[in-house]
Amino acid sequence: MDTVAFPSADEQQRILNDASTAIKRSAFLMRKAIEDDNMRDSLKHAAGMLAELRTSQLQPQKYYELYMLVFDQLAHLEAFFSDERGKGRSYAELYELVQHAGNVLPRLYLMVAVGCLFIKSHEASPRDVLKDLVEMCKGVQHPTRGLFLRAYLCQRAKGLLPDTGSQYEGPGSGSIQDALDFLMTNFIEMNKLWVRLQHQGSARDKEKRERERQQLQDLVGKNLTYLSQLDGLGFELYRDQVLPRVLDQITSCRDDLAQLYLMQALIQGFPDRFHLGTLEALLDALPQLQPGVKVHSVMAALMDRLAKYAASAASGSNDPRVLEELAAIDAFSKFKKAIARIIASQPNLAAADAVEMYTALLSYAGSVHPGVLSIVDEVLAAAHSTLGDRGRGLGGDARAERQLMSLLTVPLSKYGISACLELKEYPLLTRLLRYVTHKELAIKIVHKVLDTVSASAKSGHGAGPASGSGVTHISTVEKVSSLFRFISPLVADPDLPGESGGATEMDDEDLEEEQVLVARLLHHLRSPDPGTHFAILKISQQQLLVGGPRRLRTTLPALVFCGLELHRKLVRPPAPALAAEAAEKDKGKDDMIGKDGDEAAAQDGKGVAPAADGEVEKESEAPAPAAAVAAVEQSGSDADTKPAVSCEELLQFLLAAIEPLCGGPAGQPVVASRLLLACGYVASEEAHLELLSYTFFEEALILYDEALSDQRTRAAALYDIIGYLQRCRVFGPESRDSLTSAVTSACMRLLSRREQCRALCAAAFLWWQLSPGASLSAGKTDVEKAVNGGGDRGTANQGEAGGLKEVEAEAQPGLYPPVRDGDKVVTMLQRAAKVATQAKAQYGATGRVRDAAYLGAYLEVLDSMMRFWDSEIPGVDTGKVQDLLDKVQADLAAGVQPDAATSRRWQSTLSYISTTAQQPHGKERYGKLKLPQVP
Amino acid sequence: MKNILGLVQGAAARIDLEFKNERGQPYKKTAPVKTKTGETEDIHLFTNKDNILGEIRVTPLTTKKFEHQGIRVQLVGQIELLSERGSPHDFVNLVRELAPGGELQTSKTFPFEFRNVELQYDSYRGSQVRCRYLLRVTVVGKGMTPDSRRDFPFWVRNYEKLHEATVPIKMEVGIEDCLHIEFEYDNAKYHLRDVVVGKINFLLVRIKLKYMEIEIKRKETTGSGNTAHNENDTIAKHEIMDGAPVRSESIPIRLYLSPFDLTPTYREVHNKFSVRYFLNLVLVDEEDRRYFKQQEIVLYRKEDGAAPSGAGTTGQGAEKGPL
C-alpha cells in the first residue's frame, strides 16, 4: 500500500472522492445507528468511517480534506456518547469498549473522542487519561496519519488540560506539570513524525514533499502555541522544563525544515520576557543546528523580537525595566558572540546570511542602545572581519552585497547621518561593495542628508547645529572628510582599473543628475564657525577635484556659491540689529546670486534658458533665507569672536576654485564667467578688495575674449560683465578706466553692428552708477520694452538703471563714491550712434532687407538716450533725443522696411512718449518732443 | 429389534427435566454457548463439586396403559474426538434409579440429585474435539413399548485461583542486520477477561514496516505421540501499529481479551486433548512479508467470575497497565 510515490493528482482526486463517498455512507449509517440508540453499530460504522483515514495514497493536503470530513462527523458520535452516559453507561465502559476496535487508527480516534469526554465528565483524572492517550497514539507511526491523529488529540484536549486555575486541576487530577508533560510529549512525537515525513516517497519529489511538509508545520507548532497559552506556565517552568526539552528536540531532530520552523515558532510563540531570561540557552542552541538551516533568519528574528520589545517597553507603559534588563544581561555581546560562533561553526555559511545577522544585530543595537555609536562600530568591525577576505564586490556574491547594503543602511536610519560619519568601520565596509553598489549607497546617504528632518536633532545626539528648519548640516572637518569617504563613488571614479560604473560610462544627463546631488549636498556642509566652514570648503574642493572635469562642471559652481555664502557671513556687521538688516539685504542679493548659481548648477552651463528661470528661482529661495536666518542667530552669539579666516583668503580660494571651469576639459566658460563676476562683485561690494575684484573681472574679460565664440553667448556674457561692473564701487579711477575701456573695446568686438550698438548703450551705464539699495522697480517698463523689442534676454543693467535719480548715498569706507560722468555717457552714446550710422551705411551698400535691422540699432540708442534724458543727466538734452527720433522717422519715411520686432518697438517708444507727455510729471519734458505722425 | 420398532413407533413418553437449586427453585445459572450453527444458546452452568439437583417429569404419550421396566437418570461426561466419531469416551458415568419397573398412569415427577459430583473438566467445543456433560434420562420400555430416552446437556466451567506469581514475558528477537525488536507482555498468564499490556521496542529497523498486529491463536491437539494431531485457529487479530517505526521507537500494546471467544488453556484433558493459546506478534513489511514471533500464554478462568456476561467489570479496575 505504501507506494514509492503518491499516485498522480487525478488519481488522488479520484481516491479522495471515493473515500469521501465511503465516509459519507458510513457516517450516514452511523447516525442512523445513533438514532436507533445502537451502540454496537454506531461504533462499527464510526470505525468504518475512520478506516478511510488509513489510506496512504493521498498527499497531506488531500488527506487533510478527508480528515476534516471525518472530524465533522465525529462530533455526532461525541454527542451520542455523552447521551449514552446519561443513560447510565459509564465512560470507563465506553473507553474500554472503543478499544476493542481491531484497527489501530480508528481505535485511537475513538479513544481520543471518548477520552476527552471522560475528562470533561470529571469521572477520570485528566492526568491519567491524557497520559494514556498520548502514549497509545504511538501506535500510529505513519507520518501523515500520525500527525493528523495527534493534531486531533491536541485539539480536543486543549481545553481539558489540568492547567493552573482550570477546573481540571487538582491533587488527583493533575497539575500544570501534567499539562506540560502532555503537550511536550505530543509535541515531540509529532515533530518526530513530521521529520520522518521527508523520507516518504521517492527522492525525486523531494522538493515537492518539502513543500507539503511545510504546509503541515502548523500542526506541529500548535503544541507550542498551546504550551505558551497555559496560564500556569511561569518563567521558571519555562526555563527549567519547556525550553530545555524543546531545544533538545529541535537540535536532535536534525532536520533543516523542522529546526528552522521550530526555532521561529519558539521565538514567536513565547513571551519576550521569557526569551530575555533564557537568551543564553537559546543562543547556545543555534550553532548546533544543521548547516542547512538559515540560522541567520532565526537569529535575526530573535533580535528583531527583542528589539521591538525593548522599543515598545521604552515608549509605552509596559515595563520600563526591560532596557535595563537587556543591558544587565549584556544581550548585545551575547548576540555578538553567538553570531561569531555560528559563523565559526558553519564554514559554508553564505556571506549574505552572515551579514543578515549583523544587520539584525545592528537594528537591535539601534533600538536597545540608541546613541551608543561604539556598538555600531563594533558590529561593523565584526562584519568586516567576517567579510574582509572576500574582496571587492564580495567575490561576485550579489546577494551578499545586497545584504551588506542593507546592513550599511541601518545606521543611517537608526542613528542619523551625522552620527554615522563618526563610524570608523563604515568606509572599510563600503569598500567591499562594488563601485556601482557603493554608488547606490552613496546616493542614499546623500538623500539622507538632503531630505531628513534631522534625525540627530531628534535623538539629541547629533553634532551638527540643526537649524530651526530641520536641515541636516555636517559641521566639522572630520565629518566632512569622512562623508566624502562614504560617498566616494559620487565624487570619484573607481580606484580599481576595470571596475565598471565610472563617469566615462555614463551619459551627460545621468552624470549630471548624480552630480546635482553632490552639488546640493555641498550646501549642507557648513559650520557656524567661519574658520571651520572654510576648512570644510577646502576639503570639499580637494575631494571634488579628484572627480575629474565632467563632475567638476556640475559641482564646482555649487562650491563657489557656498564660498560666497560664507563670505557674506564674514563681512556681516556683528551687531545683531544690523545683522538682521544685512540679512534682509542679503536676501535680496541672494535671490539674484542664488538664481544664477542654481541655474548654473542645474543647467550645467549649457547656455541660458530664460524659461527655466522662474522655477529655478523658487527652488533656490527656500533654503537661502533659512540659511540666512540661521546665520543671523549664529552671528548674535559669535559677535565677539574674530573670524579665523580673512575675506582675502576666501576669495583667493574661490578664484582658484573657479579656475578649472575657465578652460580645459571641465571648461564651462559661461558659468565660469558668471561665477567670476559674482565673486568680483562680492570682492568689491562686500570685501572691498580692489585688486582681487579687479582680478575677477580681468579673468572674466579674458574668458570673454578667449573662450567664448558664439555671438549670442558673447553678448550675454558681456552684458553680465557690464551689469556687475556697473555696480562695483571699489575701483579707483585707474582700475575703473582700464576695465571700462576693456569693456568698451569688447563691445566693439561683437560682430553685428546692432549688438555692438546695444552693448555700447549698456556700457554707457558704467559711467553713471547708482547708489546701492536703489529701487529696482522703476525700470520695469524699460525692461518690458527691451524684451518686446530686442527679443534678447533682459539684462540687469537696464533694470538697475531705473533708479538713476536716487543717486545720493553716503560714502562707505573702502568704496569710492558712485561714478557720475555725464560726458562719458554721452560719448558712449555717441559712439553707439556712430555704429548705428555705420550699420545704416552697410544697409545702403548691400540693400539687403536683413540689414534694415540697423533701425533697431538706432532704436537702442534712442531708448538708452531717453533713459538718460529722463534721468536728467547732464549732457543729454532734448535735442539729441529729438535728433534720433527724426533720424528714424526719416528713414522709415524713406521706405526702409524694419522687421516686425523693430517696428513694434518703435511703436511702443512712440506711444510711451505720447502717454508720458499727457501725464503731469512728464508733460514738461516729453511735451518738448515732436512726435512723428504715425502712419 | 426393539430399537427399530421404537423408532417406528416413536417415543412412548415425553421426558422433561428441570434443574433446581437446593431450595427447590429453578436453577438460574446459565452460560451462553455457541452452537455449531453459530447461534448462541443458554445452557445451565455448573462447576466441579456442585450438587446437581432437579426434577424429571415423565409424561406418557399413549392413552393406553404405560408400562416400563424402570426409569433412571445418568450423569455422563464424555470426550468426543472428531477422529473417533460415534464412540465418545465417557470419563464420568453416574446413574440414579428413579423408579423401578411398573406402570405409569399419568405424568409423574421424579426428583433427582447428584451430590458433590466430580466435574473435573470444563465443557469445551472445539473444531476437533469436544468435551461435554449431559444428564441422560431413560425410561426402559417393556414389551412392545420402546425405551424413551432424552439427553439434557449442561455446561461446566471450573474456576482457578492463581497460585504462583506471574512473570512477564520478555524477549528479544530479530533477524540479523534487518530487524531487532524487544517485546514484553506483562504476564504469561491471563484470565479470560484480562488485558494484555505490553510494549515493543524497536532496536533496529532496516525494513519498511507497514503495520504490526497481535494475533491470538488457539492450538488444539488431539491424540498423543505419533498420532498427535494439531489444529490451529486464529481467534483474533488486533492491529497495534500503523506505519513504519524507526529505531528506538516504543509501541504500546493493550489487548482486551474479553471480546474474544476464549477458553482457559487445557492440558492433557483425560489424556485425550489439549487446548493452548498463543500470542503471535506479526510485523508486515511493505512487500507484505510477515515476520512473526509466537509466544504461548496461559489462560485461566478467574475464580470470582461472578459476572458471567456483559462488558466486564466496571470502573477503573478494568483498566490495566498505563492507566
Tell me about this structure.
Chain B: It comes from Volvox africanus. Chain B: Belongs to the VPS26 family. Chain B: InterPro entries: Arrestin-like_C, Vps26-related. Chain B: Residues 303-323 are annotated as: Disordered. The complex is a heterodimer of chains A (935) and B (323). With 935 residues, chain A is mostly helical. Helix content of chain A is 70%, strand content 0%. Chain B is built from one helix and 20 strands. By secondary structure, chain B is mostly beta strands. In chain B, strands 2, 3, 5, 6, 8, 9 and 10 form a seven-stranded mixed beta sheet that branches. In chain B, strands 13, 15, 16, 18, 19 and 20 form a six-stranded mixed beta sheet that branches. At the A-B interface, helix 4, helix 5, helix 6 and helix 7 of A face strand 16 and strand 17 of B.
Q: In terms of per-residue confidence, which ranges of chain B show pLDDT below 50 for 5 or more consecutive residues?
A: 1-8, 305-323
SS class of chain B: mainly beta
The unreliable regions of chain A are: 454-469, 574-641, 774-810
Q: What's the average pLDDT of chain B?
A: 85
Name the largest protein-protein interface in this structure. A-B, 33 and 31 residues
Estimate the strand proportion of chain A. Answer: under 5%
Organism (chain A): Volvox africanus
Family (chain A): Belongs to the VPS35 family.
InterPro entries (chain A): Vps35, Vps35_C
Membrane topology (chain A): Peripheral membrane protein
